[in-house]
Write a structure and sequence with these properties.
Number of strands: 16
Shape: globular
Distance between the termini: 57 Å
Strand content: 5-15%
Radius of gyration: 29 Å
Number of helices: 18
Strand order of the largest sheet: 2-1-3-4-5
Length: 484
């Protein structure tokens, strides 16, 4: 990268030598001879790197460093213009230069946020190495900021016109400022992870990691390792200590998706973390403290699960400090136009390079559909329409909307055209019947080999086995004695 580098020194000879070195390296030098001028140029020029002398007239180098460090506490000060390359305000890295290079001053400068400390006299080669190292760090910071922005845009909650959804988002935003646990309830595909990420983004922890864990995707022993990590030698193959997701999210947010599917033993472990903010790694004896905020989500009725003995009541009350109920899409159809526009204006998310608009008749058909898969299904339907539409206007013929037959013994019914006239049944009937048919068809097609069927369905083998039990689907064909 060709960087803009601010050089601040009151010695004219040193200033000229540094300017020549920066120019020779292919970068753009900007110069100042006192601390006040340096602060003005940092604000106006927004350099990528500052070479800052410690002893300066009007304002010392440490005072300049303190001011810059205080400014960096704000992600985008209102009076600052966007950075010309990154698009947002960024605090420059600062390398301190001084002929009075004591250990105490070096420590003080590093504590205030200096990137490096170079004592005078220094060689040109030494300075070149320090500048290149600093600019590599600048580039890395920009890449991280870009990736973070892309992730935030991907999970950006669309503005809602629905009163109930708006009320729930208002509660979420109000809860975000505190560290309390939030429980998100709603059907599959209603956007629980989107809201969880929004709560994290609205919170004081937004600059720290957001780590999502699907509690239904792991067997009990693997889920414990996923959350808490393990010590070296804890089990065969544990060749070194590995942190779990809770440690990785230190200072940030842990999102526990599908919390209703967490095994009872793991529920007791999680309860300890919520109560004491401490845990043990698998195979460990040393207590680990956790500074994280927990957000949980489920599409299950936890009250019913408590009555059935599959979910701990004390854990429920610990999770449900703030409860947010997300309405299904069929109850917020007034948001359909905005949601459709949101998905159709982000084709690049799916590797597409074209944009389309919805015809009035296509929008009417979307309004007439029951949306058993909610917002996630809407996104999939519109993505498929973007791929199949030959022009720039999506019509009803480009919309593949699911029709769900009621359960039948005729296996050929699973091969019917899913884009034909719609059959409206209740949500639970639709999803149970359709998912059962999909699983049975995948099993038949793969000779009742559960591993191959799970791969075809995009599921983990253990999760498919769990679904077979839940839906009472036989693991073997009726006339066969061999499942796999």
């Amino acid at each position: 990268m060709r960087a803009k580098i601010l050089i601040v020194d009151d010695d004219r000879d040193i200033l000229l030598g540094l300017e020549n070195r920066v120019t020779w390296m292919g970068h753009e030098p900007v110069t100042a001879t006192n601390g006040q001028e340096a602060l003005r140029l940092i604000q106006e020029e927004q350099p990528d790197l500052v070479l800052l002398d410690l002893e300066l007239p009007l304002l010392s180098g440490l005072d300049v460093l303190k001011h810059v460090s205080q400014t960096s506490a704000h992600t985008e000060p209102p009076d600052e213009k966007p950075h010309p390359t990154s698009g947002t305000y960024t605090t420059p890295l600062i390398v301190m230069l001084t002929a009075y290079g004591t250990i105490e001053r070096a420590v003080q400068a590093m504590q205030l946020g200096a990137f490096d400390f170079v004592p005078k006299p220094f060689t040109s080669d030494h300075l070149t190495v320090v500048i290149n190292k600093a600019l590599d760090t600048v580039t890395l910071h920009r890449q991280v900021a870009t990736l973070r922005k892309e992730v935030e845009n991907q999970f950006q909650p669309a503005l809602t016109n629905n009163k109930h959804m708006a009320a729930q988002l208002a509660v979420a935003k109000q809860a975000a400022s505190s560290p309390v646990t939030v429980l998100l309830l709603g059907e599959t595909g209603t956007g629980k992870e989107v809201v969880a990420r929004a709560i994290h983004r609205w919170s004081p922890r937004s600059s720290r990691p957001f780590v999502a864990v699907n509690c239904a995707a792991f067997p009990e022993n693997l889920l414990e390792n996923e959350l808490f990590g393990h010590e070296k030698g804890a089990f065969t193959g544990a060749i070194k200590r590995e942190p779990g997701k809770i440690e990785i999210a230190e200072g940030g947010t842990v999102f526990l998706d599908e919390i209703g599917d967490m095994p009872l033993t793991m529920q007791s472990h999680l309860l300890r973390v919520l109560n004491d903010r401490t845990f043990y790694r698998v195979g460990g004896t040393q207590e680990v403290r956790a500074d994280v905020r927990f957000i949980a989500a489920t599409n299950k009725n936890l009250q019913q699960a408590i009555r059935q003995g599959t979910f701990r009541e004390d854990l429920y009350f610990r999770l449900a400090v703030i409860t947010i109920n997300l309405p299904p899409l069929r109850d917020r159809l007034d948001d359909l136009p905005a949601l459709a526009e949101h998905f159709l204006t982000q084709p690049g998310k799916h590797g597409l390079n074209r944009r389309c608009t919805l015809s009035d008749s296509a929008l009417q058909r979307l309004h007439a559909y029951s949306w058993p898969g909610n917002v996630r299904e809407l996104e999939n339907v519109l993505t498929r329409a973007l791929v199949l539409c030959p022009g720039d206007t999506i019509g009803p013929e480009h919309l593949s909307l699911m029709t769900v037959p009621l359960p039948t013994d005729d296996s050929s019914s699973t091969n019917q055209d899913l884009s034909s006239d719609m059959v409206f049944v209740s949500y639970h009937q639709s999803m149970d019947a359709y998912s059962q048919k999909l699983i049975e068809t995948a099993l038949r097609r793969n000779g009742w080999n559960q591993t191959k069927a799970a791969t075809e369905l995009g599921l983990q083998r253990t999760y498919l086995t769990k679904l077979l039990r839940q839906k009472q689907i036989p693991a073997k064909p009726p006339t066969s004695t061999s499942a796999e």
